[in-house]
Amino acid sequence: MKNLWSEKQAQKYVGDLATRVYTSNLLGKESSLVLHGGGNTSVKIDVDGEEILYVKGSGWDLATIKEEGFAPVKRSALLEMAKEEELSDSEMVRRQRAAMIDAEAPNPSVEAILHALIPYKYVDHTHADAVVTISNSVNGKELIEKVFPSFLIVDYVMPGFDLAHTIYTMTQDLEWGSIDGIILHHHGIFTFDDDARESYEKMIEAVMQAEVFLQQNAPLQIAQHFEPSECDMQKIVKVLSEAKGYPISLNINQSPLANYYASQDNLREFASRGVLTPEHIIRTKGVPLIMEDTNLEKGVAEYIEAYKAYFNEFATDEIMLNPAPNYMVIKNLAVISFGQTPQEAAIINDIVEHTMKAVLQADKLGGYKSISLKESFAMEYWELEQAKLKK
Ligand SMILES: [Zn+2]
């Protein structure tokens, strides 16, 4: 993890919001901090005597966000919302929009209330690989406390209102100056400061601490376990396109990491232990298709059956998503992601690439352990995602 701050570059960004853009872009440049729309940032600015939270708008990526990507919301309204005992995420989004001072701006991040609660000007939030790798290990709670003794540590709660209200409750009597940041188990990390550079550098330093811990306690040696051979691409495209109901593009990963990952014993159990950070589930689903010793048609059919069983176990009135897999691991051959476009397949592959490394490292810490199936379902079938389908 490198500190990318450049005083010369920073000087080109004049004003609080512009500086917020600069450090957001720095975070976004580092794929081991955030991937494809992950993470969010904010800055609190006084506008005509009212404190306004400019928070990342949904649909924007930290790597490329500009000033117009930030949604300006009255902080006082967000703080009022935090006190509610109960609030659906759809109602939260509606009230956040109503509290915006620019109707043209994008919807504020679902983590806006949490940003509002933190009484510092700049707030940075990432899903840093090194932090979630440690958290997603069987002794994650203990290890996170050891690596981050001065952080507020929060057990897993679904992102959105529930998480914001949990933080509200936990911080009622907190002396904010006594903590250096917040760790959300199985999810990510927050740092904050009244200075943009300080907030960014606190993030980099915290993540470096986690990286050093992993280097010392879970050094990873990736060894090639088999000679890569060719995949039957035509067959895969045909079978998966039929299962998906639309023509798919493949992203074939035979990197040393994918090679090592696909060569593991008990591959099905090994590679089906859940997502690195909750929002990845929208792209990857909870588990991949594992191909060991059966034919592809049968493997896909079994995957779909298992997916339907998972859906039926947890669903109340949700609409089932496409039950076909989004990626697969073929024993001793490759890791292959499927997308409607080559870009989508590449995005899924990026997420899987980071997940594979985390799984292998967490195993060195005693075993990888992500959120439960029930929690995965809640995220995959989040009412905000479902609302788009029900329209
Ligand atoms: Zn997050």
Word description of this protein:
The protein is built from 17 helices and eleven strands. It folds into two domains: 7-217, 3-Layer(aba) Sandwich (L-fuculose-1-phosphate Aldolase); 233-390, Class II aldolase/adducin N-terminal domain (L-fuculose-1-phosphate Aldolase, 3-Layer(aba) Sandwich). By secondary structure, the chain is α+β, with helices and mostly antiparallel strands. It has helices spanning 7-10, 16-29, 75-82, 89-98, 112-117, 129-135, 140-147, 161-170, 196-217, 233-244, 256-262, 267-270, 281-284, 296-314, 342-364, 373-380, 383-390, and strands spanning 40-47, 50-56, 70-74, 122-126, 151-154, 181-184, 188-193, 249-253, 289-291, 327-330, 334-339. Helix 14 links the parallel strand 9 (289-291) and strand 10. Zinc ion (ZN) binds next to loops.
Gist?
With 391 residues, the chain is an alpha+beta fold. The protein is 45% helix and 15% strand.
Ligands present? zinc ion
- Rg calculated over all Cα atoms: 21 Å
The total beta strand count reads 11
Mean pLDDT, to the nearest integer, reads: 95
Q: In what order do the strands lie side by side in the largest sheet?
A: 3-2-1-4-7-6-5
Instruction: List low-pLDDT spans.
Output: none
CATH domain class name of the largest domain: Alpha Beta
Helix content: 40-55%
Which word captures the global form?
Answer: globular
Count up the helices.
Answer: 17
Name of the CATH architecture of the largest domain:
3-Layer(aba) Sandwich
What is the helix/strand order? HHEEEHHHEHHEHEEHHEHHHEHEEHHH
Provide the β-strand percentage band: 5-15%
Q: Give the CATH H-level superfamily of the largest domain.
A: Class II aldolase/adducin N-terminal domain
End-to-end CA span = 42 Å
